[in-house]
Amino acid sequence: MEPASSIRNICILAHVDHGKTTMADHLIAAAGGGLVHSRQAGKLRFLDYRDDEQQRAITMKSACIRLRFKDHVINLIDSPGHVDFCSEVSTAVRLSDGALVLVDTCEGVHIQTHAVLRQAWLERLRPCLVLNKIDRLITELKFTPAEAYARCQSIIMEVNNIINAFRSEKYLSDVDSILTKPSSTGEEADDEEEEDEEDAFAPERGNVAFASAGDGWAFRIDQFADLYAAKLGASAKVMKKALWGHHYFVPKTKKIVGKKAAAGKYQPMFVQFVLEPLWKVYDVAVQGKDGAEKLNKMITSMNLTIPARDLQQKDPKLVLQAVMSRWLPLSEAVLSMVVECLPDPASAMPERVERLLPTEELLNEASTKIEGELESVRKAVEGCVRSEDAPCVIFVSKMVAVPIEMLPKQNAQGQHISDLEISTGDTDAGGRECFLAFARVFSGVVSAGQKMYVLSALYDPTVHELDSKHVQVATIESVYLMMGRGLEPLSEARAGHLIAIRGLGQQILKTATLSSTPHCWPFASMRFQAAPIVRVAIEPSDPADMGALAKGLRLLNRADPFVEVTVSNSGEHVIAAAGEVHLERCIKDLKERFARVDLEVSPPLVAFRETIEEEEVGAVNHNGVIQTVTPNGRCTIRVQVSRLPSAVTQVLDGSYDLLRNIIEGNKVASRPSTTSRQASSYPGEKGGDDPVTGLRNRLLAAVEIDTDSIGVQDGSNKKEEAKKWMSKLKRIWALGPRRVGPNLLFLPDESSPLVKEGGTSVSSMNGDAEDVALVKGYALVSERLGLVEKEADRSTSGDDHSSLFKEVESLESSVISGFQLATAQGPLCEEPMWGLAFSIEVSVNTRERSGTDSAENSGLGSDSAAGTSVENYGGALSGQIMSGVKEACRAAVLARNPRIVEALYFCEVSTTPDFLGQVYAVLNRRRARVLKEEMMEGSALFIVHAYMPVSESFGFADDLRRKTSGFASPQLVLSHWESIPEDPFFVPKTEEEIEEFGDGSSVLQNTARKLIDSVRRRKGLPVEEKIVQFATKQRTRARKV
């Protein structure tokens, strides 16, 4: 068994069509043990084993293979570049220690390049840079060596700037919202400054390769430095530094000088010694027979041995590839860079362990023995201990469905297996698909037949009794080595290796942590770049196939790490995917693999949100109070709604899982489950930071940021506005909907007389005095977030009003439930509310419409009468308050100029100048808002950035390619939510509006109203629409024959 120092776990990351799978083919051809012939490299796409991957020529599933290079084992994962399959990138990044980041030198750094660099940074991976498709600079763009050098320099500089922005915690991408910088002092700050001084990628350090995966060649500066060091009599170390940057060689003096001494007379040494010979080979090779003699001389001078058959090819491209692949073999340059620059598991884990296993605060009084075992497991993971005595810890990043025919028919000893026993949970109902767990061993040894504890993300090892909800015991049936399309059985696997495990299909849905001991913290959940936003409802064509569809949906949910399968309130089965391509693949898998039935698929169901018109800063609205009374007259409800600062809304919307754990009081409240279904991953946060403190700081910073961004000239107004929201954040009673949404419920205003007095006595209409008490609530969320100190005692005093006050305390949950119902279904089209702050005052008195006398006559005391009378009219008081709060909140939103909120994609389109007009035409038809248009440096391509509504994005790629004859390629990434400024209930009122739009009878519906009506129509809600329009014209219209 090879030592841990000779293992490398790497993944290939890049934007779509930047050459990942082609490069993987060449690496497999050279180090894959003969799986791919060198002539088929780049054409076979070995790791794209799905039919739709081969047809579309894009990678949809991350695939793993083991390579051997110079006594080293390299576990390579090829990941997708399309944004719809960003979840596959997350699974690949979690199991790797290093990454090869590819950038097309013609297209440059794209939005997905930013995204994969960000994911690698968050998972603490060490990256290497590969500048791919250098051949396109020569053959397509016709660059000179000097122009190509400048192009490569600018790309490296741009990528370094992205990494430096991560380091300085100031990075704000187009798809993220707010990043705050935590304070660092002392040695920590000094270390960061020293780190910032050195660029992440530098060719002279050997972590940058220049390649052409299509032609099968690559090189690093080291190769040319060693070559020219012997010729020029210089050391290889000096030549490495001199071959990149502003260093020039003077032939007469044979000295290396700087830019000032060169005075523009000489070319940089990289151009002179590296690129110019490369350009000469290409110039000669493309001439065909005319350049055959010169090419032979070059081959002789480079001491290359090339078969005559390869040089006699009629296609000059094949001759060029034969020469270049032997002069500068791609596998040699890239794999040597992997071995030298990327860490082995034992070296990488000390840096990554804080991200994978954050330091825990033990909430329970755990015994010293348990604490010691937890620490020993953590040290075993950190040191990548590979002994059999070490605790075995494995992380499963996803479940993979493979045909049963692909399973090996032999065991690890080579013995034939006649009947392969597969448990029920590992296969589908038809016995056609088998589920394997794609995992990495982080410590210890795993073997077939071993029993492991399967830990969910909410498992707490300090609890003495094993919780069946969060931990299960499973037996590992088989361990396999993944070799792309095939599997090889293993008798055992030690720490540092990537494997596939059979036997966990019953216990794992998507991801899990496996441990040989129950005293192990589960790994932090993976972070995803985006969230499932595209939804469709599906049903079988034949109702008799409903059972098969339900089973197929369960299998699909397990096989895809990102898809969400739910059942709507109307009973529809709904699939949520990341984008159009992802959705298409999910439906295809459901039809052909998992359910195997004909399906009826609805049009895409796009999610919307409801909010109110944004207020002017400093404006106080006294007319937005809605007051209602419960049917029995005992309870008065007053609701006021306002718009939350946009920055606060974004923080709440992006911290869904963390807020859920904080509110529910889970142990993860001190250790975040960093799932980023949130698009919110904060590079500034370190693994050991208290997540509650981090969230509180982001909320407070969001208030300040929003106050600074508003257009208030008076500084005192800014301070007052910030102070107002700071005080409100200390009165957060609840969040909604589902108790974790981006809407706040504040406690009643302290200026209210009922709040000040705690209770009062008022006169009723018949002159009798009545006791009135306010449902106060308490700042639960503010308390959990640390914005206020914990309330010591909320018990009522034993005064004369204790019975009423006890009843009022019991009604607090009814107020919260009414708020949750209201925020879950807004008044416009029953979509969730977004970015709203509610202040609700509920006062309860002893007044009764009827039933008092009957209660007294029955012999009940006054305390019992107060409790019995609540059901005398309109049902239980708790239910009346719940429905009353719900309707009052909805009425308050309607009274404050409601608006519809839609999700926006960040759209990046690259095209040629000839088709720029067609691109703009397509964007305008889909309500896209163009942000900027820029010409890509060193090329004839234009890059157009725009925001496009998700509801208008379906069919966008096909429409764009059809209008531009395939000369435009789009990329869509979920960006943010934005309210539509149009009033859905617009009616002309002023003279100018009436003159422009008419008296209101013929006003066409605006975009907001059309969207609302379409959602209401889909949900079966009433829609105001005219069945017959212009009836007079229809009645008098002449018949045309």
From TrEMBL:
It comes from the Eukaryota. Residues 5-237 form the Tr-type G domain. GO terms for molecular function: GTP binding; GTPase activity; ribosome binding. The keyword Cytoplasm does not apply. Residues 187-201 have a biased composition (Acidic residues). CDD domains: aeEF2_snRNP_like_IV, eEF2_snRNP_like_C, EF2, EF2_II, EF2_snRNP_III. GO terms for biological process: cytosolic ribosome assembly. SMART domains: EFG_C. InterPro entries: EFG_II (IPR041095), EFG_III/V (IPR035647), EFG_V-like (IPR000640), EFL1 (IPR056752), P-loop_NTPase (IPR027417), Ribosomal_Su5_D2-typ_SF (IPR020568), Ribsml_uS5_D2-typ_fold_subgr (IPR014721), T_Tr_GTP-bd_dom (IPR000795). PROSITE patterns: G_TR_2. Gene3D superfamilies: 3.30.230.10, 3.30.70.240, Elongation Factor G (Translational Gtpase), domain 3, P-loop containing nucleotide triphosphate hydrolases, Translation factors, Yeast translation eEF2 (G' domain). Keywords: GTP-binding, Hydrolase, Nucleotide-binding, Ribosome biogenesis. Residues 181-201, 669-691 are annotated as: Disordered. One of its GO terms (cellular component) is ribonucleoprotein complex. The keyword Nucleotide-binding applies. Residues 671-681 have a biased composition (Polar residues). This is Elongation factor-like 1. It comes from Marchantia polymorpha (Common liverwort).
